[in-house]
């Protein structure tokens, strides 16, 4: 695992600081949960044709290649075609 | 003989670089001898954002060797006001604009269902990658066996029905 530096809104920083002092692994857990929730939300929008494939990648902040990898790794559909 | 020009968005391009027929990427087999164009935003999505991934380097090589031509930003045509109603990505929007700008005889190839529907609403010729392959086989530009192999190779990507239907269409082309 690598260390990354992320700008944090002040109000969230106050909460997170206390949480991390008690359990340093919570930051990773929060980050992963946030990413998975966003992925799930955008996946639903994509399958409902509210957003396209390229827009899905843009909103998630990944490249289309990375999006294909993420979907495959989770056993999700590779396209928004019906069926 | 009808000569078609094709505009790809990122979805079929990426998939055809990720799957292989034998030891060759599907894209190398499927695009040989055809006129495929991409707008700058698709180049960004596929080549720039792909970096040094081996599959992305396949796409880069196809552009460098002339299988795929990136058109200049000035050649993609004016913005389409109608697209503001939809949430398309940059690449899909530019691919639609370019296809419309190039006019008759130009077909957009996408595996994005939303882009496909919007193209049809705008009167832009548009097809799935599977239909691009079937079309090439029907025109005698791609051997039937190669078309069948490509359809089989990319099959994990498509929902139930699309691949068996494509194989049935290819079987009907047999003399």
Which terms would index this structure?
heterodimer, A: 83 residues, mainly alpha, 0% strand, elongated, B: 175 residues, alpha/beta, 5-stranded parallel sheet, two-stranded antiparallel ribbon, 7 strands, globular
Overview of this structure, please?
The complex is a heterodimer of chains A (83) and B (175). In chain A, helix 2 packs antiparallel against helix 3. The model of chain A has no long low-confidence stretch (mean pLDDT 94). Chain A is built from 4 helices and no strands. Chain A is mostly helical and 83 residues long. The radius of gyration of chain A is 16 Å and the shape is elongated. Chain B has 175 residues and is an alpha/beta fold. Helices cover 50% and strands 12% of the residues of chain B. Chain B contains 9 helices and 7 strands, in the order βαββαβααβαβαβααα. In chain B, the strands form 2 sheets. In chain B, strands 5-4-1-6-7 form a 5-stranded parallel sheet. Chain B has a two-stranded antiparallel ribbon with strand order 2-3. Chain B starts with a strand and ends with a helix. Chains A and B meet through helix 3 and helix 4 of A and helix 1, helix 5 and helix 6 of B.
Which band does the percent of strand residues of chain B land in?
5-15%
Averaged pLDDT of chain B: 95
Distance from N terminus to C terminus of chain A (CA atoms, Å) equals 38 Å
Task: State the helicity of chain B in percent bands.
Answer: 40-55%
Instruction: Encode the helix/strand succession of chain B as letters.
Output: EHEEHEHHEHEHEHHH
Q: Kindly, what is the distance between the CA atoms of the first and last residues of chain B, rounded to a whole number of angstroms?
A: 19 Å
Mean pLDDT score of chain A: 94
Q: What is the count of helical runs of chain A?
A: 4
Task: Report helical residue fraction of chain A.
Answer: 55-70%
Q: Any idea what the radius of gyration of chain B is?
A: 15 Å
Biggest β-sheet strands, sense, barrel of chain B? 5 strands, parallel
């Amino acid at each position: 695992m690598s260390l990354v530096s992320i700008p944090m809104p002040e109000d969230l920083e106050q909460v997170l600081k206390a949480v991390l002092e008690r359990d340093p692994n919570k930051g990773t857990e929060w980050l992963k949960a946030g990413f998975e929730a966003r992925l799930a939300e955008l996946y639903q929008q994509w399958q409902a044709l509210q957003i396209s494939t390229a827009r899905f990648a843009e909103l998630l902040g990944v490249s289309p290649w990375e999006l294909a990898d993420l979907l495959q790794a989770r056993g999700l559909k590779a396209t928004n075609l019906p069926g | 003989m009808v000569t078609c020009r094709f505009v790809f968005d990122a979805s079929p391009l990426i998939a055809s670089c990720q799957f292989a027929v034998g030891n060759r990427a599907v894209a190398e087999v499927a695009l040989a001898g055809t006129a495929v164009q991409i707008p700058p935003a698709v180049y960004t999505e596929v080549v720039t954002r792909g970096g040094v991934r081996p599959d992305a380097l396949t796409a880069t090589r196809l552009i460098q060797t002339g299988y795929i031509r990136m058109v200049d930003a000035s050649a993609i045509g004016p913005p389409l006001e109608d697209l503001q109603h939809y949430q398309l990505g940059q690449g899909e929007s530019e691919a639609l604009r370019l296809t419309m700008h190039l006019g008759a005889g130009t077909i957009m190839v996408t595996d994005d269902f939303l882009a496909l529907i919007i193209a049809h609403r705008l009167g832009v010729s548009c097809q799935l990658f599977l239909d691009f392959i079937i079309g090439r086989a029907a025109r005698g530009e791609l051997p039937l066996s190669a078309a069948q192999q490509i359809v089989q190779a990319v099959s994990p990507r498509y929902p139930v029905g699309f691949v068996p239907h494509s194989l049935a269409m290819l079987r009907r082309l047999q003399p």
